[in-house]
Structure formats: C-alpha cells, structure tokens
Write a structure and sequence with these properties.
Blueprint (H helix, E strand, L loop, with lengths): L2 H11 L16 E9 L4 E4 L2 E5 L8 E6 L1 E10 L4 E11 L4 E7 L1 E4 L1 H66 L2 E4 L2 E5 L13 E5 L2 E4 L5 H9 L24 H15 L8 H9 L52 E7 L24 E5 L15 E5 L6 E2 L5
Parallel strand pairs: 1-7, 13-16
Antiparallel strand pairs: 1-4, 2-3, 2-5, 5-6, 6-8, 9-12, 10-11, 13-14, 14-15
Helix pairs in contact: 2-3
Length: 404
C-alpha cells in the first residue's frame, strides 16, 4: 500500500468534518492541519487571513492543507461589543504530515471593552481619591474636634483648679481665724476615786500657752487638702454628710499628712495637741467631771445618753453645742480625737511636771492616745480626764483638732 492510500485511510478514520481546501488528498509539498477550538464556532485566521470557522459541535475539527512552512494560527469568537474569545498558536507544517492543533480560547476585551475598562478604572480612581479626600477631611475635622475638646478639658481643669484653689484659700483663711489663745497655767491632770485606772493618779501639770482650734477639723477642711493634692486618703462620711461635720475615718498617720500640707500652705507650725494640752483646754479652768459640771445634763453634747438628736446615731455639725468657758467646742462628745502622745497606762505615775508629751518609747504595741469621747460613747467617756487609745494606722469614727 503506497503512502497516498495510507494518508487517505487516516483521514477517513479521524472523521474529518471541515476542510479549508478541496478534497482530502494531500498535494505534493503540503501537510494537513486539523484545528480544534474550545469553544467551537470560532473564526480561524492563518497568518492573518480568514480561513473559515471551527465546527460548533464539541470534538469536531476544521482541517486545512498547507504548504510546508511556519504559520500563526489565530482563532476568535465574539461575545458582545465588549468581550470576545481568542487564542493563537504557532505551528510548523511538514510535507505529508497530518497534525492536530487544539486551541483553548480565553476571554479578551474588545477596543470598546478596553475603553470601558479604562473609564471604569478612572472612575474607581476618582472615587478612591474622593473617599481619601473625604477621609482626610474627616480626620482633620476629628483632630480639630479632639484639639478643641482637649482645650475645653484643659480650660475646665484650669477652672476647677482655680475654683478649688480659691476654695482652699477661703477654707484656710477661715481656719486661721478659728483659733483661741489658751494662756499657760497649771491644773490637776487625771482622776481620783471611781474612774478608769489609766487616768490615775491625779497629778499637777504646768502647760505653756498655745493656740487651739475652736472646732474639730471638718470634712470641708480635709477635702481642701485632698483637692490640693496634700492628702492621699479621701475618707468616707458614712452617709452622714461632709461639709461642716467633723472629719472621721482617719488614722493618726493621716493627721500628720494633713498638718504637713497645712504648714506648707500657711507657713505656720500646726500640730496635734499633747494629751496634757487637750485636757487643760477641755477643763477650761474647771475641776468637775465635765467642763459644765458634775452632771451629764441634757443636750450639752453628742454622746450616748446626752439627750441630743444625734446621740448614738451620727456626728453633729461642729459647734452645735455650747462652747466651754474658753470658747472651745465639742471638747467632750461628737468625735473622739487623736492627740500627739504615745499611750501608756502607767505614764501618769512618772509624767514630768512641765509640758508632758507622753512616753518616748511606745514598745511593741504602737498606740496613740484618744481624748474627748464621741457620739457613740457613754457618759464616762465624756469626763475631761478620760483617755483611751488606738493604733496609729486604724481608721474609725475618730477626728482631731490642731494647735499651734
């Protein structure tokens, strides 16, 4: 069987369905190319010249005889005005050779499609630029608002600071005017007879002159210290009210922080009174149990059984009861008060005659003396001679007053 017969039989067997040249017999110097496109029904160009279209049925081929040489096969199928399918492939056609070329078309943009893409891209860029500009404008506005808010907060803080400073100044000015001059002298300190053993024996004491605050230190005064940054501890008022009520829930150590702040603000030398100074001032020249006599009476002070509307319930605003003979208020009742001295139950037995300041060595239990009784204390705690104690770190219903 000669070469022509073999080639003819191969073409029949492969089911050639389209051909760009008449007949299926290869001419001398030519080869056969079968083109398969996916999808079908695509226009076929060889070296730029239209040669036909691929079959629309899947798997069918377009066959063409070409002279030996190099060719560029291109296929194209229009989708719409904007898109089309396209593929190309270079082939070499050899004489008397049959070959199949498969081309898978990919989506491309027409010139109009490219134009639309450029327009869409430009629109997107303009939109992005507009959004960026809007974001920057919003950021600038937000910064301006933040700066304005910060300035407003700073102005408010400055105003608050100014108001607090003015209030502190007013509190200090008023406080400085609320001191009574206590002339020096002697008195019998302590108690004899039926009284607490820690207050015995009664003994003579000489006290130098000093100034003492008329009232217990109030919440107004303490809060001024807190607001000015001088006091760290902000005590609770138990819901009884602040203002002109005596400050409570402070330790002996807290009082030292307050006096340090006060001395720095005023240039004066405030301190807690010694135990001797407190009793001397509380008695105000009297020798009776209470500074008003030997009977508790009614509504003379705030204590348990004193007959006031605050008894055993709450503290009373300072100065709610009559002052003693030297012009001092609440030296008995309302709140128990811290004094300078370390506590010792035996100190009175060895106390010096002049200006005693308490024992120098507190021992292992570091207690300070309390004086004056309080709203929840019974009548015995109201005696001018009565003394008790607490640890320097304890915070209870205890207040204080100052001397200078």
């Amino acid at each position: 069987m000669n070469r022509f017969v073999v080639m003819l039989a191969a073409l029949v067997a492969l089911g050639l369905s389209g051909c760009g040249d008449a007949g299926g017999v290869l001419a001398a110097g030519k080869g056969m190319v079968k083109i398969v496109t996916t999808p079908g029904d695509a226009k076929i160009f060889i070296n730029g010249k239209r040669k036909g279209s691929s079959p629309s049925e899947p798997g069918q081929t377009f066959a063409i005889k070409l002279r030996e040489g190099e060719y560029m096969i291109e296929v194209r199928k229009n989708i719409d005005d904007l898109k089309y399918y396209y593929a190309k492939k270079p082939v070499f056609v050899a004489e008397d050779v049959l070959q199949t070329v498969s081309l898978k078309l990919t989506e491309k943009l027409t010139e109009l499609g490219e134009q639309k893409k450029r327009e869409a891209s430009a629109a997107a860029a303009r939109k992005a630029a507009a959004e960026k500009a809007a974001d920057e404008k919003r950021a600038v506005t937000a910064r301006k608002i933040a700066i304005a808010k910060k300035k407003k907060q700073a102005a408010l803080a400055a105003t608050i600071k100014k108001v607090r400073a003015a209030k502190t100044l007013a509190v200090l000015k008023k406080f400085n005017s609320q001191f009574v001059k206590i002339k020096g002298g002697s008195f019998n300190m302590g108690c004899s007879g039926r009284c607490y053993s820690g207050t015995k024996p009664k003994h003579k004491v000489i006290v130098s002159g000093f100034y003492m605050s008329k009232y217990e230190i109030t919440f107004d005064q303490w809060d001024a210290c807190v607001n000015d940054g001088g006091c760290k501890h902000n005590p609770k008022d138990q819901g009884w009210g602040r203002g002109n009520r005596p400050v409570i829930n402070i330790s002996w150590n807290d009082t030292q922080e307050f006096t340090g702040w006060l001395n720095k603000k005023t240039g004066k030398s405030y301190r807690l009174p010694t135990e001797a100074e407190f009793e001397y001032a509380a008695r105000a020249g009297t020798t009776s149990k209470y500074n008003w006599g030997n009977k508790l009476g009614k509504n003379r002070a705030n204590c348990r059984g004193c007959g006031s509307r605050w008894d055993s319930k709450t503290t009373a605003p300072v100065g709610s009861f009559p002052a003693n003979k030297w012009g001092l208020y609440d030296m008995a009742g309302n709140v128990t008060e811290w004094v300078h001295d370390w506590y010792s139950s035996h100190y009175f037995k060895r106390s010096p005659l002049k200006n005693p300041k308490g024992p120098k060595f507190p021992g292992t239990i570091r207690n300070r003396v309390l004086r004056g009784g309080g709203f929840s204390i019974t009548y015995q705690g109201m005696f001018s001679s009565h003394r008790s104690y607490d640890r320097t770190t304890d915070r209870a219903w205890i207040g204080f007053r100052l001397v200078r």
